[in-house]
Every structure is written in C-alpha cells, then in structure tokens.
Amino acid sequence: MENTSTSTAVQKKGKTIVVNPISRIEGHGKITVDLSEDGAVDRVRFHVTQYRGFEIFCKGRDFREMPVITPRICGICPVSHHLASAKACDAILGVTLTPPAAKLREVMHMGQIIQSHALSFFHLSSPDLLFGFDADPAIRNIVGVAKEFPDLAVMGIGMRKFGQEIIKTLGGKKVHPWHSIPGGVNRSLRVEERDAILADLPKQKENLKKAIALIKKYLADNEELAKRFATVETSYMGLVKNGMLELYDGNIRIKSPRGRITDEFAPKDYCSRIGEHVEEWSYLKFPFYRALGFPNGSYRVGPLGRVNACDDISTPEASAELAEFRKTTPDGIVHYTLYYHYARLIETLYGMERLEQLLHDEDVLSSDLRVTAGVTNLVGVGVIEAPRGTLFHHYEVNEQGALERVNLIVATGNNNYAINKGMEQVAHDYIKGPDVKEGALNRMEHVIRCYDPCLSCSTHAVGKMPLELIVRDSRGEVLKTVTKE
Amino acid sequence: MKILVCGYGNPYRTDDGVGHHLAPLLAQWLGSIGQDAGLYLDHQLLPELAEDLRGYDLAVFVDARVPSGAEEGFHVSDVHPERELEGLNMHSVGPEWILHLVDALGAPVPPSVLVSVDGESFDFGDELTPCCRTRMDRAADSFRRWFSERYL
C-alpha cells in the first residue's frame, strides 16, 4: 500500500533534501536534509508538523469522560489511551481494582499488543524486508507480499484480526472500544467468548513462530546492515514488575546504554524524572531523563526499549526467545534499530502467552468488576506500555472532578531523538548531493517504521498526514522536494 | 447465494454513517428473499476484510460520498480490483483495493457492487439528515431492482 505519487524535482543546483510524505507509518511528517558546501550531509531533522491540542481542549471536562475522549487521539492504538486514561482516573478515585477488572483490562491490552505488532511487522515493515529497500515501490507493499508470499500475508492478516476480535469482544468494536471505566470495567467474558479466543490461540502462536524465524534469518543474512542501520546508543525505558517485562502495570525502569539500571520509579513520580525538550522545528517534543539532561538523557521505548530494560520475561517461550536475542551482543544490550522488529515479535509471543494465562483464570468470567468512589486525589497518573512505548496520562482536577491540567507523553515522542539520530546516520550513508534515489528515501522511511510511530498520536494530529523530504544547500535554499501523497 | 454486505463510514459524523444504516437494511432484505446474507460494519475497510470475503458469491459495499451533484443523489455500480487507486494509508483503503488484495491472496474475487449515497452533512452527529435518509431509501430501492434484474 505504497502511497501513490512520488514526485521529485530538483529546484536548484545546491544542497537541501525534504522527504514528504513518509509512507507506511501511521500519520505523516517531514524530513529535512541539509547539505554542506561539498554536498555531504550536514544535518537531518525529522519534523512533525501537526498539532491537535487534546491537552488544551480537555480542560474543564469531567475527568471521568477521559477514557472515552482520549482514544480518539488514534485509530491504531485507542486501547492504549483508553487504558492509560482509565488508570489515571483510578488514581484520582484512589481505588484499587478488583482482580477480575485488572485481568480483563490486561486481556484487552494483550489483544491490542498482538494486533498492533502484527500490523507493524506484516503490513508495514515486511515489504521492505522481503523485497529489499531498493525494490520497485509498486510491489514493495502488502499487496506485493500477498502475491509473492501469500502464506505470510494470510498469517499477518489473521493475527491482526485475532487481536482485533479480542478488543471487539470486550469493548464492542475494534476501533475506539469502550470497556474500561474509572474504577473497573463494564463487562467480563462469557465462557463461549473465552473459549473461542483460546481455540484460535495455538494457530496464531504457531504462525508467530514462523515470523520470528523469518526475522531471525533476515537479521543473520544481513548482519552488516542490521548492525549499522540507524544504530544509536541510548538509554532504554520500560515498565517492569519484579524486574520482568510488563506491559500493563509496574514500575518505570531506565537502563543505561551499558545495561546498568539507572533508575526505577513509580509512574506517579515521572514528572521529577522525565523532562520534555522543545525544538521550534517540530510539534513533537523530545522527552529525556532529567538527571542526565538533554540530549544525554534521551532514551528509547517500545519493543527494543522494553526488552533491553527488563531482566527477563515471565512467560517461558518469550523468555527463551529473549535469551536468544541477547546473544546478539556480549553484554546483552542491543542497540541495533532493525532489531526492533525482532523485539516486537518476542513481545507478541509474550502477549499470546500472557493472554493464555489470563484466559485460564476464572476471574475473567467474574462479575466483580467495579469499585466506586468520589474524587479522592486531585492528581492522577496512568502509565501503560502502548505497543509503541511508554504512554503517560497525567490529569489534575478540582474537588468537583473538572480537569484543570492534562499532560500526555505519547510513546512516539519518547523515541523522537533516536529517530532523528538514526535518520541522520542513514542519510550520511545513502545521500550524496541533491540526487536522492528512491531507495535512500525508503531507507529513511524505514528508520521511522522500525519505531512504528504513530505521528497522529504523538502530536494528536487529524487523520492522514503527508510527509515530504526537502534537501537544502548550505545557505538554506531548497534544492529538491520529494513528496509522497 | 452467499452475500456479504459491508457498510462503512463514521457513524458519528452524520451522513458519513449512512453505510451503517443502509447495509443492515439491504442484508435484511436479502435474507428475506432467501439469500445467505452476512453483515460487516466498521468505520473503515481494513485488509482483514480480504480474508473475510473468501467464499462469498457477491460483495455489496455501502458508503457515503461527498455530494456528487447527481440528481438521484446515489449511485449503484460494479467495482473491480484496482491497486492504483489507493496509496499507503490504513485510514482510507477502498473496495477496489480490498478486491485487489483478495486477488493477490489467490482467492477468487467475488462480483462486487458499490452503493454510494450522497451525504448532505458530515458534521458531528449520529443521525442522518432528512435529505440523506431520502436518498438512502431510493438507493435501497435501486439496489433491490439491480439485484432482482441480475440474480433473480
């Protein structure tokens, strides 16, 4: 599903490149490449140019409405916003969920992880891996995959559907479901619904293992590329529970590039640990770990961030796969950006195993679903691991429950610095002067796809956003603009 | 005859949700005349639909469209696989692209028809405008005639 028109036009002899729009990511942005006088790449910036302002227009609303409002930020990961928002509301109510409610939220969350990771790997990234970055864009898309690798395409479609059906079962619909409410959830699973999910699970797991074998072979066959492509050494962040990978709840852990645990703290304390740097050329902020400042405190989140941050994974098959993954480097910390895909599939395996555990727990059939309370705390923070990384919802309310302040740190923002640095490295490798080949553009887009960002989410922008690549010379004059609609 | 009726659009944007109103009506009518009719309702068409279409003898897509200026205010037309119509955008794949994906997956592409109804308003709201409702009723009649002439 490559975007249709790619227009390139050298505007003037000299030195700046802009990619616009970037395709096969959720939402679009702009890349600017500044060249030095000798035509070499001097600086690369990934701009996100849209703004929606959920943090502003939600002020004054009752906090209880937020689990329904905030999922509208995104059509791909509405469940993540729904759950993070509900958790922030729980904190304002000062309640602890009943075990059935917590488990049912996690069931929906696993459905979200599975469907979103399947979309990222099979629909958006596999065309580049299977056909190569320089392949004809006309075939380098999911339809091309369906033609040449129909079994893989069917696997991907089926896996995404499997995750979406879980969301729909609990939340009434695949996109923008409604299940979590402040203090709990509004329904449990029926026996036949649980059994239907369990019946399909073995097939999905079997298919996933084939995909894991595929990415491992790709990384082995393309070892040099895999180790160089957009690689950047950063810290890593993710939720952990007793040191184990955690996607729904737990403490936030930050690990250094060398694998040392730098910090571990409760989500409610994020403000004292995480700052947000702003650049005038992008609406997407640059979060960083305050103690190290910006940019040294920049970190990565999402699948690679999480598998690097945790000690281990609590489910056996994902744990074994993580052990394999860590053999990639002597210290077990993997900085290679292409390994995001491998980490993503390991997490999907965890999601399936965790789902199986939850569904075998009779609590998911229980009717003990909600705890009621009034406003107990004037501040509530809800943190969850969205498929793309750590997602923060922070609300401040008055005694009546009207929102006075809203702060959202969305997963994509956490990776902003690394995306920029990775793109700069790829530009250095593949761009010399204003004559930018399509394969070079696609490699820059693939940097973004590795992170599976949702630009709509992170800037709260509306609908589809085109992305352009602009090449500028050393005087800032535009030499070339490449636009994909 | 096994038929899947697919209504899509945003039911919270007034007439954009006409597919959610019209598709159930068509599915119900098809069922009442002895056809094996299934119903798919969603905000948008998704690649997964390509797998769902396996084994169907006919696909009926039902959507809103921006005012076309056509006197009838609706259109019933055959659709065929087309890969170039859509670019990368998970937000807006059309029926032609879905059919192309069906073909790429090696499955037989079912004969397909698109029922488009002109919207009057796409503002916030979960009810159709009277004008769109009238067009929807006419479109339903037109589809019934089209189906009867072709398949009965």
Q: Give the CA-based shape of chain A.
A: globular
Biggest interface found: A-B, 34 and 23 residues
Low-confidence stretches of chain B: 85-89
Number of beta-strand segments of chain A = 18
Strand residue content of chain A = 15-25%
CATH class value of chain B: Alpha Beta
Largest sheet geometry of chain B: 5 strands, mixed
Fill in the CATH topology of chain B: Rossmann fold
Query: In percent, how helical is the residue content of chain B?
Result: 25-40%
Q: Note the total helix count of chain B.
A: 4
How many extended strands of chain B?
Answer: 5
Structural class of chain A: alpha+beta
What integer value in Å does the Rg of chain B equal? Answer: 15 Å
Through-space gap between termini of chain A: 12 Å
Structural class of chain B: alpha/beta
Would you spell out the secondary-structure blueprint of this structure?
The complex is a heterodimer of chains A (485) and B (152).
Chain A: E1 6-10, E2 16-20, E3 30-35, E4 41-47, H1 54-57, H2 66-69, H3 78-93, H4 99-131, H5 142-148, H6 150-171, E5 180-181, E6 184-185, H7 191-221, H8 223-228, E7 235-241, E8 244-245, E9 251-255, E10 261-265, H9 270-273, E11 274-277, E12 286-289, E13 299-300, H10 302-309, H11 316-326, H12 339-359, E14 379-386, E15 389-397, E16 403-409, H13 411-414, H14 416-430, H15 438-451, H16 455-459, E17 467-472, E18 478-484
Parallel strand pairs in A: 3-17, 7-13
Antiparallel strand pairs in A: 1-18, 2-3, 2-17, 3-4, 5-6, 7-8, 7-9, 9-10, 11-12, 14-15, 15-16, 17-18
Chain B: E1 2-8, H1 18-32, E2 36-42, H2 48-52, E3 58-65, E4 74-79, H3 95-104, E5 112-118, H4 130-151
Parallel strand pairs in B: 1-2, 1-3, 3-5
Antiparallel strand pairs in B: 4-5
